[in-house]
Amino acid sequence: MRTLVLGIPLPHVTFDNYSFLSAPSLFDYGRVIVETSALSEAIEQVTAGSTEHRTYGGLTVVNGPGGPAAFSLAELLRLRRLEAERLLARGGIIACFAYPDVSHEGIRELPGWRRYDWLPGPDGFSYGEHLLAGYGKLGVELTDPEHAFAPYVEEFGVRLAFRAYLSEPEEVPPPHARVFARSPGGAAVGVELEVGPGRVILLPPIGSLDYSSDRAPLAAVLHQCLERMTAGGPDRQSHWLGKEAS
């Protein structure tokens, strides 16, 4: 199965690398990896007019109405939301390097659009409200060794520095979330969200990514995690059913 990777070029034979704006339709893949800080950077470049971005079809992305040779940024962002909904409805996986939700005020025809507005969440869940900003020091601890993304934490845990964490008012994960990694202070920084039949995985990023040496091992580990998750459907169902019954 091929994986769409957005915003962080990763060398793997099964990975197709694009930016968030240049990628083909998300729902043509069953697995997507997103660097959310790069997503915001691309949007800001278009709104500022500093860097040209093109759609998968070759049209220039513009901050305004589209036309025969241009595509509206606002319309592209609306389409990404529909594509993500369809991907998750088909049981797909979207893994995101998690950063706090922020507002992009300069998008014409889409005022107040936020970083995670393209990404569906569980019923009653808001990325702006429930994903809190944090600036953790290096080091993340694996709390669920059976989780499909445990190898990511095992490989890079000492170098992970969270930028966002899940709000847990009762210090207990909400019913739609499965926490598999925490900061030394107990903040939920590695989280799986159940979105219908699909899953959203929130990952703490590597504190200082060295593109020359880190991209190949990172690609290999993420591919391993996605393969484990794809193969672990029945186990995941048992986990959610057991939690609901408890």
What does this structure look like?
This protein is α/β, with parallel strands linked by helices. 30% of the residues lie in helices and 23% in strands. It has six helices and 14 strands. The chain has helices at 36-48, 73-89, 127-130, 150-156, 211-231, 233-245, and strands at 3-6, 15-18, 31-35, 60-62, 70-72, 93-97, 103-104, 113-114, 131-133, 141-142, 164-166, 177-182, 188-195, 198-203. The strands form four sheets. The chain has an eight-stranded mixed beta sheet. Strands 4-5 form a two-stranded parallel ribbon. The chain has a two-stranded antiparallel ribbon with strand order 7-8. A hairpin with an 8-residue loop joins strand 7 (103-104) and strand 8. Helix 4 packs antiparallel against helix 5 (211-231). The longest helix has 21 residues, at 211-231. The protein starts with a strand and ends with a helix. The relative contact order is 0.15. Mean pLDDT is 91; it is low at 233-246.
User: How confident overall, as mean pLDDT?
Assistant: 91
Give the N-terminus to C-terminus distance in angstroms: 35 Å
Tell me the overall shape.
globular
Approximately what portion of the residues adopt beta-strand conformation?
15-25%
User: What would you call the structural class?
Assistant: alpha/beta
The major pleated sheet works out as:
8 strands, mixed
